[in-house]
Amino acid sequence: MEQTLSIIKPDAVKKGVIGKIIDRFESNGLRIAAMKKVQLSETQAGDFYGVHRERPFFKDLVEFMTSGPVVIMVLEGEGAVLKNRDLMGATNPKEAAAGTIRADFAESIDANAVHGSDSLENAGIEIKFFFDKSEVL
Ligand code: GDP
Description:
Layout (H helix, E strand, L loop, with lengths): L1 E7 L1 H6 L2 H10 L3 E8 L3 H7 L9 H8 L4 E8 L2 H9 L12 H5 L8 E3 L3 H11 L7
Antiparallel strand pairs: 1-3, 1-4, 2-3
The protein binds guanosine-5'-diphosphate.
The site of guanosine-5'-diphosphate (GDP) has 9 residues, from helix 4.
């Protein structure tokens, strides 16, 4: 059993598609082990995306991630990390395969509806960033 971190980003929360996105996870064998809706601070968003700090899009990314509430989840299931990445689709929604979350609900590379951990190692780090052990059930 693997666990991975998923974030429904501000664009998708504003659009009112939280339920539709969660349905993709639950219909594909991913269980919601933890979930909360939060408004990220600039510091939190910046630290979470710390690996991108030197990239030209970093400022836009932090601005976007703090532009409204997000829903943060721990997804659990067999091969959860890769399964979630497959369900999400490519980073740029214009390149995302038909039927993926980003193809169906996202507009642009910055407003791309969801985040998902890209490796098991990062999943562990990202889950710890947002959740206490006692909150993952
Ligand atoms: P992900 O793992 O598919 O989310 O992609 P990355 O880890 O590479 O990038 C993190 C986030 O930064 C993406 O989800 C996008 O929201 C944003 N991002 C990545 N590349 C670009 C870019 O070239 N331009 C802009 N504006 N945002 C980007």
